[in-house]
Design a protein that fits this description.
The chain has 373 residues and is of the alpha/beta class. Helix content is 30%, strand content 24%.
Length: 373
């Protein structure tokens, strides 16, 4: 096995899902978001936990992710959150996936393909209530197009959804509440026009926890499943009981004693001020340890923070371990996680390199083996 790895606690994911299920009010369903290989945690093991704990639906970003779930034996409905293109529809139909639809033209092509295949395609209508991303903008034109879609013989509108832009903002929830009002007002208009849609959903992780009145027919948590926080305001809130499920670790590859005045790494951006011990960690920027962490970030070794020195290389980076007691090759280095009472969170790591926890974990889990515990 590679000397850098990600440890994933399926038990912690299970606890997070149980907490989220406990926050939903029946008959509200839970759709587990498992895109990007389960946010880097491994889509199939995570999906098995979600299934065992009662998740009714899965959500992915692209058709290929849904196909992976089907090939692994999952039979729950699977929503594709992103755009499915015309060339995707044969596989969408073959694997019984539900695309997000946000134009009558998309639906027309899918309807024709479904008719030829002798199938009824289930879809969810996407509404843009404030992200300026995918989705119909509520209004008369959207009403007209959705009515046309509802009349297509081989299309079944199973759901309608939107996405919050600021649900994790605890200090000011006005934009979030405005999005919710826009969404429910528009779905009420559809109902009044005779377009009945069984499932309405808008709540992401933060909204599912903070705003129970916005749960509607289904909640759609992603980050909270993995114990990640949507923003700094969200961390430490009373009653928020989701915790990280992943730690990133490596073996110390080398220990080298160097004299004062030694330049470290590419371009010599760090120079030792004393005789020093320099350790090498076998991970680099291709693994998601950003170059911006050079001379800025830190890792844990022997339960102490050790600064990253010099520029982060493609596959390695260097740390100053001078103050440690007898560091040796093969000692365990913690990049994200806990060691002997010290802790580096994914949020701290991400902040150090100008990113967010969800991004760094998806990248860090991409090239390293996942070890489940």
């Amino acid at each position: 096995m590679r000397a850098a790895w990600a440890e994933v606690s399926l038990d912690q994911i299970r606890k997070n899902v149980r907490y989220l299920m406990g926050r939903t009010t029946p008959p509200t369903k839970l759709m587990g978001v498992v895109k990007a290989n389960g946010y880097g945690h491994g889509v199939i093991p995570v999906a098995r936990v979600l299934e065992a704990e009662g998740a009714s639906y899965f959500a992915v970003a692209i058709p290929q992710e849904g196909i992976e779930l089907r090939d692994a034996g999952f039979r729950e409905p699977i929503l594709i959150l992103g755009r499915s293109f015309d060339e995707d529809y044969p596989l969408v139909l073959e694997y019984d996936l539900m695309p997000a639809i946000f134009s009558a033209e998309q639906a027309r092509v899918l309807n024709e393909g479904a008719a030829k295949a002798g199938k009824i395609a289930s879809v969810h209508i996407k509404i843009d209530t404030g992200m300026a991303r995918l989705g119909f903008v509520p209004g008369p034109e959207a009403m007209e197009e959705i009515a046309r879609i509802a009349a297509m013989p081989n299309i079944r509108i199973e759901g309608i959804f939107s996405h919050f832009a600021t649900a994790s903002s605890v200090r000011d929830d006005s934009y979030c509440r405005g999005q919710f009002a826009k969404f429910t007002s528009f779905t009420d208009e559809l109902e009044a026009a005779g377009i009945k849609i069984p499932l309405k959903h808008i709540s992401n992780s933060a909204a599912a926890i903070l705003y129970p009145e916005m749960q509607l027919d289904m909640v759609r948590p992603g980050m909270a499943v993995y114990g990640l926080y949507a923003g700094p305001e969200f961390m430490g809130l009373p009653g928020v009981e989701v915790y990280p499920a992943m730690e990133i670790k490596a073996k110390l590859a080398s220990v080298k004693r160097v004299p004062s005045g030694t330049k470290i790494g590419y371009d010599g951006t760090f120079e030792t001020k004393r005789e020093s011990l320099i350790g090498v960690v076998p991970m680099g920027y291709v693994d998601g340890v950003r170059r911006s962490l050079g001379n800025k970030g830190a890792v844990l070794l022997h339960g102490r923070r050790c600064p990253i020195v010099g520029k982060v290389c493609m596959d390695q980076f260097m740390i100053d371990i001078t103050d440690l007691d007898d560091p040796r090759e093969n000692d365990e280095v913690v990049i994200i996680g806990r060691q002997e009472g010290e802790y580096i969170s994914a949020e701290e790591f991400a902040e150090s390199c100008g990113s967010v926890s969800i991004e760094v974990l998806c990248q860090l889990g991409r090239r390293m083996p996942l070890v489940y515990k």
